[in-house]
Amino acid sequence: MLWTIIGILFVLWLLGLVAHVGGGLIHLLLVVAVVVFLINLITGRRPAV
After folding, report:
1. 23: which DSSP letter?
2. Ranges of each domain in the chain
3. SS3 35
4. Contacts of residue 22, Cβ cutoff 8 Å, sequence gap at least 6
5. In contact, 15 and 22? CB cutoff 8 Å
6. Eight-class DSSP state of 20
7. Is 26 within 8 Å of 16 (Cβ atoms)?
8. Contact 2, 36 (CB under 8 A)
9. What are the pLDDT tens digits along the chain (49 aa)?
């Protein structure tokens, strides 16, 4: 599920760069998703399915 969220946010981020849609909110959500992913990776927890 985390990979799906990261993928969707990455696509929205690319759309925001190209079409200037969404503003800073998309960038903020992408950063939050990356931070959550890194915390899960560092703590070694298994991702929720």
Report:
1. T
2. 2-43
3. helix
4. 12, 15, 16
5. yes
6. -
7. yes
8. yes
9. 777 877 887 787 777 777 776 666 767 777 787 888 888 888 876 656 6
